[in-house]
Amino acid sequence: MRSKKIFDIITLFFSLSYLAIFLLFLFELAINSQLTWKMYGFQFIIGTRWDPNKNIFGALPFIYGTIVTSALSLALSFPIGIGTAIFLSEVIDQRISELLTEVIELIAGIPSVVIGLWGIFYLVPFVKNFLEPMLSCLSFIPLFSSQGVSGLSVMSAILVLSFMITPFIAVTTKSALDSVPEDLKEAMYSLGAHKYEVITYVSLPYIKKAIVSGTMLAFGRAFGETMAVTMVIGNMPTIALSLFSPGYTIPAVIANELTEAIAQLHISSLIFLALILEIMSITTIFVERLIIRKW
Amino acid sequence: MVSTKDIKDSLLNIFATLSFTVVMITLLLIVGTTIIRGIKAINLDFFFALPNPPGQPGGGILNAIVGSLILVVISMSISIPVALAVAIYLYRSRNMGLKELIRVANGALGGTPSIVAGVFVYLMVVVPITGFSALAGALALSFLATPAMVSIFEEALKLVPHEILEAAVSLGVEDWKVLLFVIVREALPMILSGILIALGRIIGETAPLIFTAFGSPSLNLDPTQPTSALPLLIYNYAMSPWKDWQEKAWGAAFVLTILELLIYLLSRRISKR
């Protein structure tokens, strides 16, 4: 009996420590960004200038860059990911589909720094020499107005993020599609329904929870991604409407500046940015749970 | 006769096939380039020599290979026992409130962007205690590996059939022995594949290492000193102006990709069994 007690105490101890580390984590981020909060307050979040040399810190360019890159890459990845899942689950033969799914799953695990490496050497030149001239006919739309000289741009960041999250959306949606009961689909078919009807009226509604949670997770990955984005976005703290101009994101500026920051206010501002990112991440998870519970 | 419904059916097929093709082409382009350019950079020196001074061609990436190994071993030996203990607690405890709290914390930790984990370890360990060090890097990686392992381990324990548990208890085996020697053993394949999934994730992580392990051009076996790692080296070399270093970045990317492939295949094999 005593050994059982000891065993229970050990697991309880680890669990409580684990909980304590989580609280300590939030506390540390909050306490170490105090200086910036005292100095700027809410002004920090809407401040548009970031100039460490002059000790001026405003977070908006990073918040803007983070949200624009992750939201637009999600908008690009979502339909393609769902389409790929439908292809794997409903269009081709089961056995080939198993194999192809494994290939996509495997590639989804490629480290982001490798995607970033590819981005620098192939994607960035592609955006500069091909994509930007091609879309120049749309340059009357501010989003596509030509700006870039190097190809290091918000557009490149959106594309690398899409490469990373599309396989993820495809794989999660595919495994959900496979879980739709056959008899539901058979019933529809026996009533003379077409495939697109079965998919749009039965399969997709049946797995809407899985789609929402997969998409939210993909969104979280996109805005938390550091390496691939840092390597291709150009790292300029500006807010430009054009997708072909350089930008900056929260993870990228932390990665670039934290080791070199000397001024207390600079360090504290970077940690404030980390706190904002963590709050975004927790909010995403919370909203996902809420949606899933409501349905 | 072709009805509008038939047309919609074909449109759906075309859309699905096109999506798949786009995904496959981009992914194969990335993998293909990494393989072709990576193999060119690889020779015996690449694996067994240390880097030459910046700008001087030749040399290898031994520092990064050893560094990655050290980081992964330390972080796994922290994460596995912690995750197992927490998962066992979640499996056994009847304290619903505390369990829910731990699950919420685990979910939030699991979603934490990797760079933020690095910031936390920088504040807690690097600045006050060790400075840039392999130990700090390993802790940052543990921070990312543990939450995923907790949920996979808990799932693995729950999947053990109740008959096995009842059989062991009816034989009069002590409760905690049943847990360790019967349930954990039964769940072992899934636990191992969970470990491999976490391993695959952290071996490619770069962001949390930038201001913890920091990187180092020399071979370092002391965990209190800064160390290089494969992903860190890829990042630094890719952004460098030297052609030779850029080629080495492709070589290291190839090695990392092959490692991911092996880890993935192994975890598939184990979980299928």
Structure notes:
The complex is a heterodimer of chains A (295) and B (273). Chain A is an all-alpha fold and 295 residues long. Helix content of chain A is 75%, strand content 1%. Chain A has one domain: MetI-like fold (Orthogonal Bundle), CATH 1.10.3720. The mean pLDDT of chain A is 93. Chain B has helices spanning 4-41, 44-48, 62-92, 96-111, 114-130, 134-158, 162-170, 175-186, 188-203, 230-238, 243-272. Chain B has 11 helices and no strands. Chain B has 2 domains: 4-41; 47-272, MetI-like fold (Orthogonal Bundle), CATH 1.10.3720. Chain B is globular, with a radius of gyration of 23 Å. The chains are: A mainly alpha (295), B mainly alpha (273). Chains A and B meet through α1, α4, α5, α6 and α7 of A and α1, α3, α4, α5 and α8 of B.
Secondary-structure blueprint of this entry?
The complex is a heterodimer of chains A (295) and B (273).
Chain A: H1 2-32, H2 34-40, H3 43-46, E1 50-51, E2 56-57, H4 60-91, H5 94-108, H6 112-134, H7 154-178, H8 182-190, H9 195-206, H10 208-224, H11 227-232, H12 250-257, H13 264-294
Antiparallel strand pairs in A: 1-2
Chain B: H1 4-41, H2 44-48, H3 62-92, H4 96-111, H5 114-130, H6 134-158, H7 162-170, H8 175-186, H9 188-203, H10 230-238, H11 243-272
Helix pairs in contact in B: 1-11, 3-6, 3-9, 3-10, 4-6, 5-6, 6-9, 7-8, 9-11, 10-11
Describe the structure in brief.
The complex is a heterodimer of chains A (295) and B (273). Chain A has one domain (33-294): MetI-like fold (Orthogonal Bundle).
